[in-house]
Amino acid sequence: MAFTDTVKIQLPDDRAYEIRIGAGLLDAPASWHGLPKASAAVIVSNETVAPLYAERLRRQLEPLYPRVDLVTLPDGEQHKDWACLDRICDHLLREALDRKTVLFALGGGVIGDMTGFAAAIYMRGVPFVQVPTTLLAQVDSSVGGKTAINHPLGKNMLGAFYQPQRVIADLATLDSLPDRELRAGLAEVIKYGPIADPGFLCWIEDNLDALLARDKAVLGYAVRRSCEIKADVVGADEREQGLRAILNFGHTIGHAIEAGLGYGVWLHGEAVACGMVLAADLSERMGLMPTGFVERLRRLIERAGLPVQPPKLGGERYLQLMRVDKKAEAGEIRFVLIEALGRAGLHAVPDAVIVQTLSAHGAA
Ligand code: NAD
Ligand code: GLY
Q1: Global pTM value
Q2: DSSP collapsed to 3 states, 317-357
Q3: Considering every ligand atom, which ligand is closest to the CA of 54?
Q4: Which atom of ligand 1 is closest in space to residue 135's alpha carbon?
Q5: Which side of the chain, N or C, has fewer Cβ within a 10 Å radius?
Q6: What is the CATH number of the domain that holds 329?
Q7: pLDDT given for residue 324 in this prediction
């Protein structure tokens, strides 16, 4: 194994857990020791990831659990829905699996969010482990306990806060990730710079080519630093009473793009990347950031091969979609804006200013 880093996420009531990061963790027995004991483990994965990694995970779990099942779901953001959630629950109930059963989410953020939600609601809660296999899931979605499915009217609208027992991020699984998915994951890595760590933003600018070339040491640092930042934020505000909202930089417009185009047309990371450019524009327009910030972020996002031009859904449609954002209050749309490099906050933005930004980017 090349190396293993551990980031701890501190939470009350014995819910602290470890994020282990390294190349080769999937096949290392130590990764799986010390998890809750149970008479059954259920691996939840999809038809793309299961053929690549499920048997290898099963081999590790079989010495530890008398029974190891596999539930394989269809692949895609459009399947992050009630029907697929039901398929996980159907299996658990049909097989009469008890409330100690441990679920293992093997895949990207879609599988992680759905498995976590199933774990939260099955018999009012069973333990689960995140085994993220996309960059996006390793740097963001597997950490912090947000679980959800989509609704046609809004992204991630049905879900629960429910923390995993452990996160095992095997960097070697990223070898099979398509380039487009790697780039989508970079969007969430880039996000952490402006909201929390200007030094990390410079580091990403300097190391972008090595990240795109999948240099393991560089990827490992990107995953670790992202997880450290997220762990600090979630440790301070698990249920998004305030601070945690900063993790949604770029997501208000990003979620509108995803729902507006239909889930799966743009990848989540692509929509967030473009959403960050527009949120940066709003930060400048609202007088929080000096001129030049949008251009700096746009250049980095473009170099990462991510979209900077939003789809032309029309101003009214964007506003309608953003009014169902979880951060909206009493119909008022609120954005995470950058207040200074490394510091972000929630801001209500007048519709007219939002439309100016959308128009300036050819989206209104
Ligand atoms: P995804 O889960 O759809 O995975 C992307 C694609 O890569 C899929 O086709 C998947 O089958 C494939 N794949 C996964 N691992 C692979 C591997 N190792 N090799 C080859 N192919 C592989 O998408 P994602 O970008 O991982 O996650 C996006 C989802 O995460 C969205 O639904 C988003 O809302 C959610 N999310 C949640 C949080 C959170 O805090 N819970 C945070 C960010 C994003
Ligand atoms: N991805 C946003 C959050 O976890 O809060």
Answers
A1: 0.97
A2: HHHHHHCCCCCCECCECEEEEEEECCEEEEEECCHHHHHHH
A3: 1
A4: 26
A5: N
A6: 1.20.1090.10
A7: 86
